[in-house]
Design goal:
Blueprint: H1 8-41, E1 50-56, E2 58-59, E3 63-65, E4 71-72, H2 74-86, E5 89-95, H3 97-106, E6 111-116, H4 119-122, E7 125-127, E8 132-141, H5 149-154, E9 159-162, H6 166-174, E10 180-183, H7 186-194, E11 200-204, H8 207-214, E12 221-237, H9 241-251, H10 256-265, H11 280-311, H12 318-326, E13 333-336, E14 341-342, E15 347-348, H13 350-365, E16 369-373, H14 385-389, H15 397-412, E17 420-427, E18 430-437, E19 445-448, E20 451-458, E21 461-465, H16 467-477
Parallel strand pairs: 1-5, 1-6, 9-10, 13-16
Antiparallel strand pairs: 2-3, 3-4, 6-12, 7-12, 8-11, 8-12, 14-15, 16-18, 17-18, 19-20, 20-21
Length: 478
């Protein structure tokens, strides 16, 4: 009776089903994990994507609300370009710095448009690769009689800053005795300064200059000291490594030319660019070869210029020269005894060369003028023969003109030659050099000791302008 015999098949099938249940559960869990992972990284895949960006509402010219109520600026354009290249729709949420930081903390925004890295912010935020360099200045009211931060401390003058700005930690760490007064944004800082409630403040450049220019107050404040230069970076919530990787990858897609175009649009001289030059070794070789070719062409042009000067001796009008000299030094005329020779020390003096360059730049930044070299302060010809002796290879006119041309190229730029006409003639038995300078087509700065200087001609001297004064002058001149 077979039906009485045990049948093991049903028991075996039940056992197989029980064995499969854990495997099925594992499979479901894996699928769920894949699905969750996909939603996490879906942002990195092609398709519709979006980001909310916390940005500044008064950080000119980088991110601010214009008179039409639109959010505009260098950073806005930069991230808009970033979004186009990476197929990401960006929604900008303007506010003060403190508001923007809170939005990152609370998850109300995906990223911060740009800020400086600090240990305090590192607690809740991760930072992207650097985008651009910005320096921060300490400004004080003109004619305050203060020339250092120590002077502010002695008179217990508070420094106005933006609340939660990086400059606060910098001042606390480097100048702990400085009194700090915080404001919601840069517009409030400048507004209080212009109404007399604040005589010193620290803001990024050129944010401060743009705000002062809007109120026609560029000459009311001056730069007391450059505090620091820091790199601007995007910020995301700490731990959001996938988004940070996407941001950094997208930054690399923006070319050098595109960055330069953004700076040009907003009239900012570009600091170090976001995108590093690749294949720099090949580029260096190309630059070197181009430099050699350019130098050879420059020497050819220089020799041609010298030949033209020599051939012009026949048309020398001494009466014309003497008439100009007889007028004495003024807004358009300057006398210098030598190009580089110090009569007292009887050797070349770099400081005399610097005076020559300052005079030429001042003429170009004003309405032009005439510089006589080899004429003393009394208007008497003393000659430039002493300068000739300082040139070992060519102790003559050629050596003088070569040196003068080199000084102009190195300090004022090669393009400045088209505004300068040089002639050497004999007056009372001495060689005298006359340099006729035309007004320049653009501002001419002189660099020295890591700084830039801007000179104009006023009275019978070349006068340096502060940064704020220079900006106001440039706006009225060009």
């Amino acid at each position: 009776m077979n039906f009485l015999q045990p049948n093991p098949a049903p028991d075996k099938n039940k056992a197989n089903i029980k064995d499969r249940i854990p495997n099925i559960s594992k499979t479901i869990l894996v699928l769920l994990a894949i699905l969750i992972g996909y939603t996490t990284v879906a942002f990195a895949t092609p398709g519709e994507k979006s980001l909310t960006v916390a940005c500044y509402k008064d950080y000119r010219p980088y991110s601010y609300i214009n008179q039409k109520g639109e959010i505009v600026g260098v950073l806005i354009d930069f991230w808009t370009l970033w979004g186009k290249k990476n197929h990401v729709k960006l929604t900008f949420i303007p506010g003060h710095l403190t508001q923007s930081l809170e939005r990152i903390k609370k998850g109300e925004a995906d990223m911060m448009i740009g800020l400086f890295h600090s240990k305090d912010r590192e607690i809740f935020m991760a930072f992207s690769d650097p985008m651009m360099e910005i320096h921060t200045n300490l400004y004080v009211r003109q004619n305050m009689g203060i020339d250092s931060i120590a002077g502010l401390n002695e008179r217990k003058i508070p420094v106005g800053v933006i609340k939660d700005d990086y400059v606060i930690s910098y001042l606390n760490n480097n100048h702990p005795n400085v009194k700090i007064k915080t404001f919601a944004g840069s517009e409030e800082v400048v507004k209080n300064a212009l109404t007399g409630k604040l005589t010193a403040y620290a803001l990024d450049f050129p944010n401060a200059i743009f705000l002062l220019a809007e109120h026609d107050a560029l000459t009311k404040f001056k730069i007391l000291q450059k505090l620091y230069t820091e790199k601007l970076r995007a910020g995301v919530a700490k731990g959001n490594a996938p988004l940070l990787a996407i941001i950094n990858k997208g930054i690399k897609k923006i070319s050098t030319a595109e960055i330069e175009e953004l700076y040009s649009k907003w009239s900012i001289n570009p600091p170090p660019l976001i995108v590093r030059y690749r294949n720099w070794i090949i580029g260096a070789i190309v630059v070197l070869l181009s430099g050699c070719i350019g130098f050879a062409f420059y020497i050819y042009r220089l020799k041609s210029r010298i030949r033209r000067i020599k051939s012009g001796n026949k048309s020398f009008n001494r009466d014309e020269w003497q008439k100009i000299i007889d007028q004495g030094e003024n807004d358009w005329v300057e006398f210098k005894s030598s190009l580089r020779w110090n009569i007292q020390t009887e050797k070349p003096d770099k400081r005399i060369e610097e005076v020559i360059i300052k005079t030429l730049s001042a003429f170009m930044n004003a309405r032009g003028g005439t510089l006589f070299i080899g004429i003393n302060d009394e208007g008497r010809p003393v000659g430039i023969e002493a300068d000739y002796k300082s040139f070992q290879r060519k102790p003559n006119r050629d050596g003088f003109l070569l040196k003068l041309s080199s000084m102009i190229s190195q300090n004022l730029g090669r393009q400045s030659h088209k505004f300068i006409i040089t002639d050497i003639q004999i007056m009372d038995g001495h060689d005298v050099c006359r340099i006729t300078v035309k007004p320049g087509e653009r501002p001419i700065y002189i660099k020295g000791n890591g700084k830039e200087f801007f000179y104009i001609r006023t009275g019978a001297s070349s006068v340096p302008l502060s940064m704020s004064e220079a900006h106001e002058y440039i706006n009225s001149q060009w």
